[in-house]
Amino acid sequence: MDSILQIDNLTVSFDGFKAVNKVNTGIEKGEIRFFIGPNGAGKTTLLDAICGRVKPQSGQVMFFDVDVTRYSEHEIVNIGIGRKFQVPSVFTNMTVYENMELAVVKDRSLYSSMFHSLKKEQIERIEDILVTIGLYEKRFNTPIALSHGEKQWLEIGMLLAQEPKLMLLDEPVAGMGRAETDKTGELLKKIAQDCTIIVVEHDMEFVRDYASKVTVLHEGAILDEGSVYDVQNNQKVIDVYLGRGGERDA
Ligand SMILES: Nc1ncnc2c1ncn2[C@@H]1O[C@H](COP(=O)(O)OP(=O)(O)OP(=O)(O)O)[C@@H](O)[C@H]1O
């Protein structure tokens, strides 16, 4: 199998506290990998280390043959790792379509001058993505008119516009009902045909339905890794997380 991301011996410290502690894992191309675990387990910090938001104390994060721990956040976006945060950060004073235009033009400082001169392939890409995320009909609405789920899909679409090879999503279905959650899962399956995905998630039903593989973190370290079935039946995982009904963000 082709490994797209290889994390080796990664440790992230905050004033001596190891939020991520000697983590080793490899993500294969096309996976939808879920990071799960109790609050404070280090899931978000691990995403932060992959996208360059925090610098590790030690270890490597090899994306193809590049150690991204040596790169800035901005450079990491440019080499193909996109990150979506928990709270949607779409521009509410612009239409859905304009948000997509902004996303497709990688250098945002050029946006105003390029507004009317998107290339044909950029326009086609925007339209394709709008269809994929189910917002083509709503492209001239502002995000205020969108549901919570639709705003999340727009943001995922904005990430896709930058043509990432790896997408990092932090609790993408938080606050969604079941129907929107399932639609998001189907969207991720579609995206994973071209772009590997890592998801931090507490919604175990979502994890069960859509994970290729699950990494369970506890106190900064990997407690278990494997299929949903395997980790669900691991007594240690049940004791520290699943048996407590999982936990949501405070
Ligand atoms: N910038 C920071 N400075 C100091 N401590 C931090 C910082 N960021 C995270 N931590 C600590 O690192 C630990 C791991 O936090 P992290 O947010 O990665 O956990 P998590 O598994 O994502 O939890 P949750 O499910 O609640 O989002 C926590 O104890 C947290 O308080």
From TrEMBL:
One GO CC term on file: plasma membrane
Pfam families for the chain: ABC_tran
Ranges of residues in domain ABC transporter: 5-244
Gene3D superfamilies: P-loop containing nucleotide triphosphate hydrolases
GO molecular function: ATP binding; ATP hydrolysis activity
Highest taxon of the lineage: Bacteria
UniProt keywords, alphabetically: ATP-binding, Nucleotide-binding, Transport
Protein name: Urea ABC transporter, ATPase protein UrtD
Taxonomic lineage from the root: Bacteria, Bacillati, Bacillota, Clostridia, Eubacteriales
